[in-house]
Amino acid sequence: MKQSMNTKHMTRKDIAEMAGVSVSVVSRALNNSGYVAAEKKAKILRLAEEHNYIPHPVAMSLQQRRTGQILYYCKDLHNSFNIDLYYGMVEAARKRGYMAMINANVTFDHIRGAMVDGILLQNEFFVRRYLETYGKNYFLPVVGASFGNLETLSQSVPIVEWDIEGSMELLIRYLRKRGHRRIAYAGPYGYQNPNCRTVVWKQLMEPLLGERLRDYYLDTSASDSEGIMIADYDSGATEWLNEETYNNKAREAIRILLERGLEATAIVAFNDEFAVGLIQALEQNGKHVPDDISIVSFDGSYRSMTSVPRLVSVGPDFRLYGEKMVDTLVRRIEGQRLHYFSRVKGVIHEGDSVRRLR
Amino acid sequence: MKQSMNTKHMTRKDIAEMAGVSVSVVSRALNNSGYVAAEKKAKILRLAEEHNYIPHPVAMSLQQRRTGQILYYCKDLHNSFNIDLYYGMVEAARKRGYMAMINANVTFDHIRGAMVDGILLQNEFFVRRYLETYGKNYFLPVVGASFGNLETLSQSVPIVEWDIEGSMELLIRYLRKRGHRRIAYAGPYGYQNPNCRTVVWKQLMEPLLGERLRDYYLDTSASDSEGIMIADYDSGATEWLNEETYNNKAREAIRILLERGLEATAIVAFNDEFAVGLIQALEQNGKHVPDDISIVSFDGSYRSMTSVPRLVSVGPDFRLYGEKMVDTLVRRIEGQRLHYFSRVKGVIHEGDSVRRLR
DNA sequence: CTGAAAGCGCTTACAG
DNA sequence: CTGAAAGCGCTTACAG
Q1: Which A residues, 64 through 83, put their C-beta within 8 Å of a C-beta on chain B?
Q2: Cα–Cα 20 to 30 A to B185, which of A36, A304, B17, B168?
Q3: How much is the pTM?
Q4: Which contiguous run of DSSP H or E holds residue A312?
């Protein structure tokens, strides 16, 4: 073992010397490109094999101006949505000859040193931050994921958006088909917050709930709330809502629900983590899902499948979503035509968290 | 925006020409090494700044024979234990001038192309597989995590082990201090399986349970069981137990518990995921944790903190564990002395899943 | 079919 | 203090 440690890495030059040819020939043989006399080729391949020659990826990259690696910059690895998306990316990247890796380093600074051909950004938040820092003067192909919060993002970063609006419609329709009419919404942001879920829920439920609309909006933004997303964004402190926050807010939502004595038959939850929190809080108050109340949520992540009961959740097809992101990035890297904005629909991931009322 | 896209990447040569000096001088100025006339240095730095010059990481790596990147090879990203460990690694790596990334690609093949200085392996399983494939003839510094299943691993890969044996002792002692004596164990492997948890639990509980020992071992290995770990290892099919499996097995464990009419006051769970499954299964059977029965588990992961109730769980100090792994790898990379085997103790992560009996 | 040569972008003794 | 030169490991026209 020891000797293998100290063995200097073989190079093509070494092989060339052993085979009595030039480096060019070795390269051609190994890369299977250009002419090489059959017997020499065989000999070279044999020698390489015997001596465990491994090409030096860094040298190849320098010469080819291509690392073959892409990076998914994602901080919140405890949220399984992000992981599911990553798995989708890995597969799509592999098919296109790239290796997809995750980086969760704290600052963007590290990214300058990253030996990658492009970067996939976790959400609009990081796209914006990227544009304000490295994006300004450092050209590296970048593609962002987005979840319906498209403010006025610069056009310079291609975006692949999961259609939150359509997804909310799917959830409401799903519930209505099963007889639900009094459908509450629970999420981390306030009633006036212009985020997509809030806006669309209000729009769709207004006709059903009328002036009770506001009551059915379980606003948990009271304490710290109202967009840590934004507060944080300026302070640079915490990054994004985490599960603990979701849990607390979910508990708060249930408190409000019970306090108001709402006769909601179903709740739409901000995301799977939030939904899990709701279920737990309900359980603690002696209410069972879906017998006493139904729950649906956004994400369709692994989390929704492993929750008890399994969640009815709307989410992107992760394989497709990952594929679109990677495809867009690779096109950008390889200088092909691409869409600066594309969209992935949501699909219902079936579960057992909804009761049929009729 | 468009022009920035097509702007060719600046090189030191470009800066040199603009500044009217040689590339060497530019390099010295930028790297802040060696002599450079003060004014020239200033000019060079200004030019670099103005033209958004960014060093080419690949070229630097080739020359320095160092990428500054390390890879955490980990497939099971849905298990928060692995994520917690990664976060620990990121921090430790940063301190030592490395960037830690995650790779979850399906095959090891990709690893040859990875532009990294070393690799951290998720567990003994991958260490073994690594040794049998690339490890055989490809020298790249590698360090493995291990959870008490040290079979006869070759000495060539340094191992940082989480002390499972001591951790089991901590759990049992924790429970005993609170008056528990009838402590069951629930995990995925069979009663005869020589894994560390099983062995140590039997050893510690034998004096307390006597001939009822076997009853208190909730063996869920019946169906597919008895080490997918091993079956899989040969087939190369599925990789490792996943959460869904844990959930099913947890349900099975509770079924056995109830069927046997055990008067267990506490259960030690294989890991946090398993424990969460147990809680849910108990809840479905009208039993509450910790009022009716207490649960403790292994991992001490993020999952244990966000479960309801929060789990009492024994796990490594992730910062320390990540640090030891990274430190060992970096030493190996940099040719310093290192321990081929080191150990991290478990610590109790407090929670609300244990009831005090006295 | 083969090999010397130039080059990818950077570094670092070394002679001036 | 400066710059030409050699080199990191590989590729690829191009002249033979």
Answers
A1: 67-69, 71, 77-78, 80, 83
A2: A304
A3: 0.92
A4: strand A312-316
